[in-house]
C-alpha cells in the first residue's frame, strides 16, 4: 500500500475536513489542561503527597516524551499506507490514551509516596498514547494546504474546539472531582470517554483530508534531527512558544490554589476558567484578521503582551477583589487565544517551508520535538509552581486533616500565579522579535521555479 499522492496545491480546505480535524483538539486541550490543572492539587490535597514531590512526579514522566515523541515523528514521516502517513498512528493513540488517562485517577486507595509513584507510572503510559496521536495530528495542517493565511483560517476552527475543551477541563472537571477520591475517579472515567470519542471522531473525520506535503521522507532519524537543529525559524518558534507555554502552565497549576486561598472560594476555579476561555470563543476572527494586517509575528507580539499584562495586573487581587481578578483573567484569555492560534499556524508554516526547501517529508520529527518540548515545558510549569509553594511554606494535607496555611504560603500562591508567569511571557515576546519566517519569505520559498 502507498501513501496518497499529493493533491494539486489546494488553497482551501473543505468544511467537513476542518471540523473533522478540529474535533481532535478535545484530546490536545483536555490532556494538557486536566493534568496541568488538577494533578498537582489532587496529589497534595487528596493523596497527601508533599508539594515538591508532586511537582516532580508531574514533570519527570515528560523525560520519556523526548524519546517517544521523536520516534513517533520519524515513524509517521516514513509510514506508507492507504490512510496516509499520519492517521495510522492517530488510531493507535486513540486506543491507548483514554484507558491510561482513566487509570491515573481511578487507581488503588494509596496516599503519600506510593500514590505519587502510581500516578507517575500511569502518566508515562498516557503520555505514550498522547504522543502516538498528537505528533502526527500536529503535522497535518502543514500538509493540507499550500496557502500561508489559509493555515491560520483552518486552525481557527481548531481553536474554537480547544476553547470548548478547556472550558470542560476548567469548569466541569473540577466541579466533578471536588476534593474526594470518589469525585476524581468519576471525573477520570467521564473524561476518558470524552477523549475516546473525540480522538476516533478526528481519525474518521480526516479521512478525506488533502495531502500536499512532500512524498519522499528523510532517510534517517539523524538526518531529520539535524534538519530541525539547523532550522532557524523552527528553533526560534520553539523557544518563544515554549516560554508562552511555560507561563500558561504555571498559571494553570496555580488556578485552583488562587481560587481557594486568595479568592476564598474553591468553585471560583470554574469561573476563572470561564473568563479565560470566553475570549477564545469570540476573538478567533479578530486574531485571523490581525495576522493578515500585522503578519503573524506582529500579532504574536501583541498577544504575548496582553497575556503578560493581565497576569501582572492580577497581583492586586487581594486589594481589589474577585471581580477585578476575573477581568484580569479575561485580558489573559484574549492574549492566550492569539498565542494558541498563531503558534500552531506558525508551526505549520515552518514545516511547509522546510518541505518546500528540502523536498523531504520530515514534519513528523518537527512536531515530535515540538510536542515533547511543549509537554515537558507545561509540566515544568507545574513544578515551578510547586516549588514556589514549597518556598512559601505551603503545608500539604488531605480532606480528613485540613490545615491553616501560613501567610507566606498565601503570598506564594499569588506570586506564583501573577509575577512569575508574567515575566516568563515577556521573555517570549522578546524572542518573537527574532522570528523571521514572514509571508514574503514563505512566498519566495514556495513559488514555482521559472521554466
Q: What is the CA-atom radius of gyration, in angstroms?
A: 21 Å
Number of helices: 17
| Helix coverage percent | over 70%
Task: Name the poorly predicted regions.
Answer: 1-8
Structural class: mainly alpha
Number of strands: 0
Mean pLDDT: 82
Main sheet overview: none
| Overall shape | globular
N-to-C terminal Cα separation, in Å?
33 Å
Series of secondary-structure elements, N-terminal to C-terminal: HHHHHHHHHHHHHHHHH
- Give the quaternary arrangement of the chains: single chain
Strand content: under 5%
What does this structure look like?
- It is built from 17 helices and no strands.
- With 451 residues, it is mainly α.
- Mean pLDDT is 82; it is low at 1-8.
- This is MFS transporter.
Q: What is this structure, in a nutshell?
A:
With 451 residues, this protein is an all-alpha fold. It is 78% helix and 0% strand. Helix 10 runs antiparallel to helix 13 and helix 12 crosses helix 13.
Question: How does the SSE layout of this entry go?
Answer:
Layout: H1 15-22, H2 25-45, H3 51-59, H4 62-78, H5 87-105, H6 112-144, H7 148-177, H8 181-205, H9 221-230, H10 232-262, H11 268-282, H12 284-313, H13 317-358, H14 363-391, H15 407-417, H16 419-432, H17 439-446
Helix pairs in contact: 1-7, 1-8, 2-3, 2-6, 2-7, 2-8, 2-10, 3-6, 3-14, 4-6, 4-14, 5-6, 5-8, 6-13, 6-14, 7-8, 7-11, 7-12, 7-13, 10-11, 10-13, 10-14, 10-15, 10-16, 11-13, 12-13, 12-16, 14-15
Which descriptors apply to this entry?
single chain; 451 residues; mainly alpha; globular; disordered N terminus; MFS_trans_sf
